[in-house]
Write a structure and sequence with these properties.
globular; Rossmann fold; alpha/beta; 13 strands; 2 domains
Length: 374
């Protein structure tokens, strides 16, 4: 199957180099090698391979190579300066596709020597929209159970997915977290990871987590930043016109892998919707340049809607998620009555017929998610 970024990246490679980031095993290498087939003269180099790393350092590819794919380049010392110099001195017919995970995504926060030379994409797990060969309802059910990472999902096997998941998170803790942290912190991060699996969709209290783990709140914040940088979790913050104030509010966390969530089917569904919405928002931002963001809504007295989408810092959608309850959420009613111009929808997985009451749509979750941009 061709991934959803395939055509867009091929078009962008005609203008600049392309950088792709995303979780481990989300399909970055598969996507890169698929794109490789669109070029006549190409080379794929993985910086984890000793011989490939030597070729990369010495730039030992033929001058007539049209596409150079550099995988895991971010593990190379001073890779940004290397890439800048390589791109600026390339042959006219050459372009570069660079893939990687955690540190490739965070480099922009520490100064960018590649300005104006690249397009940046975040590759996300499979979603209802991307699984267009399946019925939307069945796609949601499968994503809830198996998660959206290609290998466990395409196996269609709970046993295979569980074995994959066990190895996946063992490798991340053993290898990737060690790049960010000290060995004596690994146990605390593991415990935090287990605790977060049970806190999907709930506002996160750093103080409460710090008391449970017996570490400082700032240390909890640091560990959550690490898990976010490694694309294990993502954070959704409450909407507020003053962005600085929203950062001070309690965030909610979700896992890129819905199958790893520890909760009932409703919790898995909310996580699956969160991943689909994140993918939709990031695609529009990365591929179309849209100023769009994902949030949730919560008042001081606890009235909350699961998700909200904002464009140019103005809310466009309220989104509530239910497994089977088609009765409209009182909180969704509350916000719709006060902000009538904003689209309000309640996504229900197990519903026979869509309906609309007081301008609030109650629709099958899979069908609605299948209409997103990615």
């Amino acid at each position: 199957m061709k991934r959803y970024l395939y055509k867009t990246i091929i078009n962008d490679l005609k203008k600049k180099m392309v950088l792709i980031t995303g979780p481990r095993q989300v399909g970055k290498t598969f996507l890169a090698k698929s794109i490789q087939q669109e070029f006549k003269k190409t080379i794929y180099l993985n910086n984890d391979d000793i011989e490939d790393a030597k070729t990369i350092r010495n730039r030992e590819w033929p001058l007539n190579t049209e596409l150079i794919i550099l995988d895991e380049l971010h593990k190379m010392k001073n890779w940004k300066n290397y890439l800048k110099g390589t791109f600026d001195t390339r042959s006219d017919n050459q372009t570069f596709l660079v893939t990687g995970s955690a540190r490739l995504d965070t480099f922009r926060q520490t100064g960018d020597s590649l300005a104006g030379r690249y397009f940046f994409y975040r590759l996300n797990p499979l979603s209802v929209k991307e699984l267009s060969t399946m019925l939307p309802y069945e796609a949601v059910s499968a994503l809830n159970r198996l998660g959206g990472f290609p290998e466990p999902f395409l196996s269609s096997s709970d046993e295979h997915a569980q074995r994959w998941r066990q190895q996946y998170y063992t490798d991340i803790v053993r290898e990737d977290i060690m790049d960010f942290s000290r060995i004596n912190e690994i146990r605390a991060i593991r415990l935090l990871l287990e605790m977060l699996r049970k806190r999907i969709g709930s506002p996160l209290s750093y103080v409460s987590l710090s008391e449970d783990l017996q570490i400082a709140p700032n240390t909890v914040r640091k560990y959550i930043d690490i898990l976010e940088s490694l694309h294990i979790i993502f954070i959704i913050r409450p909407y507020h016109r003053n962005i600085a104030r929203s950062i001070l509010k309690e965030p909610k966390i979700y896992f890129y892998d819905s199958g790893y969530v520890d909760g009932d089917e409703g919790v898995h569904l909310e996580n699956t919707v969160a991943v689909c919405l994140l993918k939709h928002v990031q695609y529009l931002h990365d591929a179309k340049g849209t100023d769009i963001s994902l949030h949730y809504i919560r008042t001081k007295d606890g009235k909350e809607v699961d998700f909200a989408i904002a464009q140019k810092d103005a809310l466009t959608h309220f989104i509530e998620v239910k497994l089977s309850d088609s009765a409209i959420s009182e909180n969704l009613k509350y916000f719709k009555e006060r902000y009538s111009q904003i689209n309000a929808v309640q996504l229900v997985h197990n519903i026979r017929h869509d309906k609309e009451i007081n301008n609030i749509g109650v629709v099958q979750a899979g069908a609605w998610l299948s209409q997103l941009s990615a």
